Amino acid sequence: MSEVTRAEYCVVACAEAWRGAGEILASPMGAVPSVGARLARLTFAPDLLLTDGEATIVRPDGTAEGWLPYRKHLEMVTGGRRHVMMGASQIDRFGNQNISCIGDWAQPKRQLLGVRGAPVNTLNNPTSYWIPKHSRRVFVEKVDMVCGVGHDHAAGARYHRIPRVVSDLGVFDFATPDRGMRLAALHPGVSVEEVREATGFDLVVPDEVPYTREPTGGELHLVRQVIDPGNLRLREVPA
After folding, report:
1. Where are the transmembrane segments (predicted)?
2. For each of the chain's 239 residues, which pLDDT tens digit applies?
3. How far is 195 from 191, CA to CA, in rounded Å?
4. Nearest by Cα to 110 from 92, 86, 89
5. Structural domains in the chain, sorted by start
6. Burial class for 119, CB neighbours closer than 10 Å (0-12, 13-18, 19+)
């Protein structure tokens, strides 16, 4: 079997976000998180629910498994029974996410997607992030606008939780006293210095940083032959 690609390490890192989640709704956004969620469902998270993004619960092969009317979807969103993995145009050390604008919101340099559902997602159910191009433009000291709510703005939010941030360089969490971002794992071939250089704030780095786990042979078969034979993952993280 050919060498494991960086994209496949990213898929595994995203899949691990749903380990032990039980019967909750996975809402991955992006090719790599979508492949990761389907991989989790087919291996260690068989109770995970997948959706087509509209009103249907689907199996990993895309066939219909059940019906999820919008009212029920909202009940899951606001009750902590969904784990969404979103993108971020900016993210800061406390996990605040920006997808709305770059610069002053009253007169931005660049208009982006808008706030959309980010506040509801982050305050009402676990939210992780997938960032395919780790850089100082994305990992910033302070976001220009808070869309997804970070730990320093989430006081009293019952279901607020940011399990992990996955980038093309590594995996990050907030297991620190002040809930600042921590380097939890490096993808093989990446150094701590490389991550620090690409991050616009002081990242917490443990004395020993593990590597993202190696996908098993069975997992690689599922990713390459069953879930993503068209190699969509490589569009986000080129080989």
Report:
1. none
2. 689 999 999 999 999 999 998 889 999 999 999 999 999 999 999 999 998 777 788 898 888 888 887 777 777 777 788 999 999 999 999 999 999 999 998 889 998 988 988 998 899 899 999 999 999 999 999 999 999 999 999 888 888 999 999 999 999 999 999 999 999 999 999 999 999 999 999 999 999 999 999 999 999 999 999 999 999 999 999 98
3. 7
4. 89
5. 6-227 (3.40.1080.10)
6. middle
